[in-house]
Amino acid sequence: MGEKIATLQPTEWSIQDLAKAAGTTSRTLRHYGQVGLLEPSRIGSNGYRYYNQDSLVRLQRILLLRDLGLGLGAIGEVLRGKQDTAAALRTHLSLLEQEQDRIRRQIQSVHTTLRKTEGGEQLMAQEVFDGFDHTQYKDEVIERWGKEAYESGDKWWNSMSDSEKKGFQQRQVDIASAFATAHQAGIAADTDQVQAITQRLYDWVGIGWQGKAVEAEAFAGLGQMYVDDPRFTATFDVHGEGTAAFIRDAMRVFADRM
């Protein structure tokens, strides 16, 4: 630890410090390096990665482009200058307009969910998930479970009919609602009642894994992502504040008992 501090220059940052400053993770920065987007400016004799001021500017551009919805491949093209400035701006503008429409639909979706939740009405999947796109998690899925896992899941999802997709989503909404009800009633995550709901969630996740066994750590890791990723947290907490963390805890208990 002392060597790391001693060798750190005023104009460079360790991977941990850069990740913290940018609001991301060291694992994400390493992934960006592996795909050629953000190489460290140097690697110390101790194996630590260091980034200079140019790296900071490059990472800022990467994060801005990610926020605009560009995939890592498209970001690479922009950074390599394969798109001229005007073309890049047109792409950005188009993506912003698409994002504006998606956010508008999400806001309406949350309004509808809130109204129905407060009124005790049945939630419908097509209303809850309007404006949400599973492909926005592509890079996270590839980073955690590999490209093959994403492509397999994406192919499976696109092979389903609209009615099958709605049924699958409705099942998730019903499970999340059951968790929220238990949480609001003060029932502990390790009780038989909550673990029965968790079994339903495990079975639901297993459908997406297309018959492959969902390993304990993968299931627990998914639960942690529900809390770590604000997009997931918002999806679950619309049923009641703290629902995502409660589900995470229940999934951890379930995994420990597998």
TrEMBL record:
Cited CDD domains: HTH_TipAL-Mta
Query: One Pfam family for this entry, by name?
Result: TipAS
User: What InterPro entries does its record include?
Assistant: DNA-bd_dom_put_sf (IPR009061), MerR-type_HTH_dom (IPR000551), MerR_fam (IPR047057), TipA-like_antibiotic-bd (IPR036244), TipAS_dom (IPR012925)
Gene3D superfamilies annotated for this entry? Answer: 1.10.1660.10, Antibiotic binding domain of TipA-like multidrug resistance regulators
- What keywords are annotated for this sequence in UniProt? Activator, DNA-binding, Transcription, Transcription regulation
HTH merR-type domain ranges (all copies): 12-81
Superkingdom classification of source: Bacteria
* Name used for this protein in its record: MerR family transcriptional regulator
Task: Give the originating organism.
Answer: Antrihabitans spumae
List the top taxonomic levels of the source. Answer: Bacteria, Bacillati, Actinomycetota, Actinomycetes, Mycobacteriales
